[in-house]
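Here is a tokenized protein:
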Amino acid sequence: MSAEQRLAVRQQQSKPIMEKFEKWLSVQKPNVLPKSPIGEAFDNTLSNWVALNRYLEDSDLAIDNNKAEPALRGIAQ
């Protein structure tokens, strides 16, 4: 798949899902305790929203960090 095709698929399929997820987070956030684990997860997700959606704008970015994690694991030990 070319970079242009990958970007088009992301825009067509992933972007609407991410938009719905952001709306859901915003609606649900007032219903959870801010200092609870889920409340902190909501805050973390929403505060990093731009970075989480960067892959929708750049087809060269991976959707996950599966390749980077094993490389960093050696450094962390």
